[in-house]
Amino acid sequence: MTKPPARVPQRSNARSNRERILATARRELGLNPDITLEEIARASGVVRRTLFGHFPGREALLEALAEEASEALRAALPADSAPSGAESAERSYARFVLSMWTVGDRYRLLLALARRDLGVERVTEILSPARGAATAILDRGQRDGVFHTQLPAVVLSAGLEAMAIALLEEVNSGELEDDGTRVAVASLIAAGVPEKQARVVVDEIASGDGAVAGE
Length: 215
Hints:
It is a single chain. By secondary structure, the protein is mainly alpha-helical. The protein has helices at 12-31, 37-44, 48-54, 58-76, 89-101, 104-118, 120-144, 153-173, 181-191, 195-207. Helix 4 (58-76) runs antiparallel to helix 6 (104-118) and helix 5 packs across helix 9 (181-191). The chain is elongated, with a radius of gyration of 20 Å.
């Protein structure tokens, strides 16, 4: 029996084209969800045939973006976000917000494409680990008396997520400059932490100091 030919490694320029197309699509779809594949190809600096060689249609491109976002979100989740961790809830939540801010554009894109393109169920599946981690931290903080209990943890989590996405939009529009620290402070305040304490916590987490309560 003849062996099948060995798989030829993808050429570096082909990998570069694919990465450039995905990066461009992520940016352009975030600005205009109705953009066509032809427009994405032009913005990427490739011909239409090259784009379709990597992604046969819009669905394939969006699924590639969804998988990319899923991997990025999982990688960004702080390892100590578990509710049983020794770190205080306010520190854990500040760390969570700062970590998620680094992949905020992917988060925002998924929400923008949720209903029409990817489907709510697919987006919920991708965002579930991050949302679950946030809710667990907020629930722990409510039980510890760190966060207010005016809203159930899952509802509070959804509200804070919406606020963070709205603030990210303001950064993208040029109305706000932030590396994530201002959003983290605002999130802690919205969760019930006094402003002064919220600033101290975020400053310590951002600078790498005081990672565990009591240290």
